[in-house]
What does this fold into?
Amino acid sequence: MRVARSLQKGQQTRAVILDAALALASHMGLEGLSIGALADVTKMSKSGVFAHFGSREELQIAVVTEYHRKFEEEVFFTSIREPRGLPRLRAMFERWVYRVSQEIDSGCIYISGAVEFDDRPGPVRDALVAMVHAWHSAMSKAIGMAKDEGHLRADADVEQILFELHGLILSLHHDARFMRIPGALPRAGTGFERMVQFYATAAGIAADAEHRRVPSR
It folds into this structure.
């Protein structure tokens, strides 16, 4: 029982450190993370922090993994409750936009990490790429399902749609966070609606409109 309690306490302590690291990385970037900075924030000794994360690189990877876990929880797992097709694709994009809107004052680790590690090979970059690729794969699958459901045109290019949707997210983050341009959020929504009008079939538009009339469950 003492061993079990010790393990539980260790897991709780690690979770506290990881939460603090995630907050620091959101504001300072992954490169701003250090064992010393975390020790100051958590009021722990450097050796205490080091015991849970044996290196700065291991800490950075743990932060990327935790960020991805929360992203999936807030964006992906809530969206897949929606019907396949355009309603689910809309849910995924709108929750993605909402997540970015909540990070305007802190920053998106996917986006800031891409800037920090775009030309720096290594385990941290590999972890970032893997997480972003996992999300893009989920979006591509949702787009493909929308085609299969007859909600998007048969000739719609899945990768092109993904590229356009990701472009809207990058523009939103840039204009809202860096440029502080008012109205960036509704512009992202307008961009999505234009994408729907261009790629959607009559059946897809009807299914999307019908689903939006039904109160959220």
